[in-house]
Amino acid sequence: MVKIDIIGAPTAFGQPKLGVSLGPDAVRLCGLKEHLSQLGHDVADKGNVYGKYRAEYGNHSERNEEGLMNFNQVKDFSEALAASVEGSLDNNRFPFIVGGDHSLSIGSVSGVTKKYNNLGVLWIDAHGDINNSDTSPTGNIHGMPLGVLLGEGSRSLVDIHHEGAKLKHENIVLIGVRDLDTGEKAYIKEHGIKCYTMSDVRRLGLDVVITKALKHLQDCDGIHLSLDVDSLDPLEIKGTGTKVDGGIFLSEMLLGLNILSKTELLVSADLVEVNPLIDNCNETAEKAVVISEYIFGQSQI
């Protein structure tokens, strides 16, 4: 039995497509709390986290002098989310953050690393999200959270919640990537970050990749899962903003997550980029609930 806090992170400031802020409530409407409770877990829904910027539809395209979109809004939201996540851990509960765009991971991981000094991260995503203001082709911060957490880019983002880089290069495993920018490729190679592309997933199988990733992170004091639904193939996932062909199939994902759920090192997770405005009858949110069940121990028998 896991004591789970569902924390809604309804931010869309990290990218240009409106609607992803509705993701947490779309997933709730598909019975997230009820399904996790039926697995025998103690589940509390803590509601949505908000910073001081609430009118996303009115201030969603501001760029700072570095060309970063909605910098102040992302920073403010990240601080608020980090505090909520730390509070959940203070109460010996598992923070399960539902987004919202992937910039929210700046806040979620910053909150977790107040409690875990040697945190490992499984980053399951079509993208590397390891850009900074110099390498990003768009200025969208949802393509930068991992870079920020590694200490790259704006100091005020890097220092959110507590000063300095939150993660170590050797404690990260990227899984399912298939759309890396030039600067990201160079950074990954330069710092020796463990990276399993979709070619690796197809060759080895996601179950083997997850097993290898867990072995790589076995000396960490905890593991955070950051799962972007665009890691899945667009044939199965419609309601997300940056789809890339050739992704993980849902059956593969569930098998991999079932293996992950068995480790005692998993201490927190975020599930991001569900956008019901571009979905088909909320199918992506429904699949997000299934994915969530497997994170927390569901199996096919």
UniProtKB/TrEMBL annotation:
Note on cofactor: Binds 2 manganese ions per subunit.
E.C. no: 3.5.3.1
Catalytic activity: L-arginine + H2O = urea + L-ornithine
GO molecular function terms noted in the UniProt entry: arginase activity
Pathway the protein acts in: Nitrogen metabolism; urea cycle; L-ornithine and urea from L-arginine: step 1/1
Keywords, alphabetical: Arginine metabolism, Hydrolase, Manganese, Metal-binding
Cofactor(s) demanded: Mn(2+)
Keyword match Manganese: yes
Pfam families: Arginase
Protein name (Swiss-Prot/TrEMBL): Arginase
